[in-house]
Design goal:
The chain is mostly helical. The chain contains 20 helices and 4 strands. The longest helix has 32 residues.
Amino acid sequence: MIANFNIMPLIPELFLALTAMGFLIVGASQGNRSTAVLCWTSCLATAIAALLLLQVSWENQLSLNGMLVIDEFSGFFKLMILLGLATSLALSVDYLYKERIARFEYPVLVIMAGLGMMLMVSANNMLSLYMSLELQSLSLYVLAGIHRNSPKSAEAAIKYFVLGALSSGLILFGISLIYGFTGSIDFAVIRETLEQAETASPGITIGLAFLLAGLAFKISAVPFHMWTPDVYQGAPAPVTAFFAIVPKVAALGLLMRLLFYAFLPVSGEWMQIVYFLSAASMIVGAFAALAQDNIKRLMAYSSIGNMGYVLIGVVAGTTEGAGAVILYLLIYMIMTAGVFTVILCMRRQGLMAMQINDLAGLSKNSPVMAYAMAALMFSMSGIPPLAGFFGKFFIFLAGVKQGLIVLVVLGVLSSVVSAYYYLRIVKVMFFDPAADPFDRGMVLEKRLILLVSVLFVIGFILKPNLFVDSAMSAAKALLL
């Protein structure tokens, strides 16, 4: 690979950056009445960025003098991020107007957060890692509090910001230690230095621990998960959907590049930390969700548990493990998009209904929505032959092959426990006395997203190799 300042591989990111700045000018001149147009134009912009991304060579290339790397791994993650951005924006438009919080800043912030995420998965230097992470985070802090008149939204934003600032401090302190002991912030130089060292320096281990603690916050891994339930519950529903669908995908892509490339020579040190994060996340995610009555809080603990399963593939430290992580993230993202589509349709007399009991009798009032939600819940439970089963199967298989028997058994038991609260929703929809029906009229974009999500989880078994092979190929690019 030849390091240079070639910016051609970054054309999709440059396009999104210019788009966001253009939208900011349009919004400032046209006001909030331009929100819907900007949201839909943002969806179009993500589609154009995806087309530009497919035109860029995914062979290993360095850009901006080695600050960023473009390869098949980053390309695959960027496609997932763009898909998540478009889905999140499409889910938002109707809600923003019904709740009277339509502001032109919303699509601009989503695009800027997406830009940060795309740069995160291409980061090849501690400086680009931190700058892209903060670009994403600052946008997400504002999005969490975009419902200015809601005390819960304000509380969510404050908690997210304060704890996010703490995680940024941990990351910076970890980077400073790593720089002090290796003399570089470039991933390639760090890896070379660690390979030449006879033993891992305690300073490197401590710096890596701080860095992992900060990144664990971004993926809601226990014990750095404390912000997740409150932010999921307090933030506006489409913002919660955005948080659930996209940022964790980008953060895990960044984490994998960091561990599988820069710190591969000291894998023995970081595997112990990630092992604990995985086990703790699965246990807390499974058992804490049992007591939840608010469906957004339940989805928060569900996401914590799912990050625990994903980290099994990271602990495995192999190409199979990395491929299983990528496949799981793709399946999880699509399932979550479908679930939040249903959650966003939970309105009575113009007000959001967020309790699980509000779904009572949905099979009688809205059978199509109920059966779609049931299929998604069965898939999240890991029941074959739905897509969620294959996601967990490949993760557990990668763990077993590396001898992580205890962690895999813990994952299986946690999955059994989590099946209770997923199937509880099915029970409420089909067997509880019917509550008042939700407001009629699911907009077209929600119908399409729900249809695609359900067809994906049901039809995955018909063509699994299409996704499995793509994920494994992307993983091989990372572990060359």
